[in-house]
Amino acid sequence: MGFDRAIKIAPSILSADFANFGAEIQAVEAQGADWIHVDVMDGHFVPNLTFGPPLCKAIRRHIKTVMDVHLMISPVDPYIEAFADAGADILTAHLEAGPHIHRTLQAIRGAGCKAGLALNPGTGLSDVEHLLDMVDLICVMTVNPGFGGQKFIHSQIEKVRRLRAMIGDRPIHIEIDGGIDPTTAPLMAAAGADVLVAGSAVFKGGSVDQPAPYGDNIRAIRAAAQAAQA
Ligand code: DX5
Ligand code: ZN
Predict the structure, then answer these.
(1) Would 173 be classed as within a structural domain?
(2) Would you say residue 2 lies in a domain?
(3) Could you tell me the CATH number of the domain that includes residue 196?
(4) Is the pTM of this model over 0.70?
(5) Nearest-10 Cα torsion for 127, 196, 53, 211
(6) Quick one: which atom of ligand 1 is closest to the CA of 48?
(7) Residues with Cβ within 8 Å of residue 106, at least 6 apart in sequence
(8) In which domain, by residue range, is 139 found?
(9) Number of domain units in the chain
């Protein structure tokens, strides 16, 4: 996984057919997805439950690109090894998930994964400053985590702009998660984001039997973002 700031579209399988993950992943990758975003929720840190390491391990063999695992769980540390063994390329933990995010990020890199740091919409950037040398990706949540299909929170645009300046030349991706579609994607690309997670806006209108809309959706988001990228 080399580093570049080209726009990457990361469909969230939270909006895929849960009975058909393998085929859904193959379909979105064939239609142009750059990464596959996997939303892990524990019903405690966020008010929704999804899946854990065994499911990640089972879908891993269908992913040819990058397995981007977003951990919306607390505590995180007891599960890092299991998600790394399941084949995650990137493991992203929330700043708000516990008092020892520094240790968590160390453990993620120690387990051989790229380390991601996610920030809820209400979280500021001051604590991020001391973690910049420990992360490969910062995920700015543009909805409150827990569900797909929520409305984009515009106040996060200015946060991304400041984060981009803070990052400078460091090889750190800025990922945006929540409410991304061809209207909101350019706002974030202009502010400095390069990885755009999209669930409902990618999977809408298509299916594994009719995957062409996935490609149309991905191209529409990518084109809007590329035109606006700073
Ligand atoms: C929300 C998840 C997101 C979500 C995005 O907690 O982290 O990845 O699935 O879904 P959309 O694109 O529908 O907002
Ligand atoms: Zn996510």
Answers:
(1) yes
(2) no
(3) 3.20.20.70
(4) yes
(5) 170
(6) 6
(7) 134
(8) 8-229
(9) 1
- Residue partners of 98: CB distance under 8 A and separation at least 6: 74, 75, 76, 77, 104
Task: Give tens-digit pLDDT for 146-160.
Answer: 999 999 999 999 999
pLDDT on residue 2: 86
Q: Is 143 in the pocket of ligand 1 (CB under 6 A)?
A: yes
Contact 28, 36 (CB under 8 A): yes
User: Tell me: the pLDDT tens digits for 192-201?
Assistant: 999 999 999 9
Is 127 known to be catalytic?
A: no
CB 73 within 8 A of CB 97: yes
* pLDDT per residue as tens digits for the range 160-185: 999 999 999 999 999 999 999 999 99
Cα 66 from Cα 89, distance rounded (Å): 6
Phi-psi region of 129 (alpha: psi -120 to 50; beta: other; left: phi over 0): alpha
Is residue 111 assigned to a domain?
A: yes
* Domain assignment present for 3: no
Query: Which of the listed residues 14, 15, 67 should we mutate to test ligand 1's pocket, taking the one with most ligand atoms within 8 A of CB?
Result: 14
Catalytic-residue membership of 177: yes
Ligand 1 closest atom vs CA 146: 6
Residue 92 CA to residue 94 CA, distance in Å, equals 7
- Residue that is written with structure tokens 């809408």 in the block: 204
The single residue listed with the structure tokens 């988001």 is: 221
Average pLDDT over residues 83-96: 98
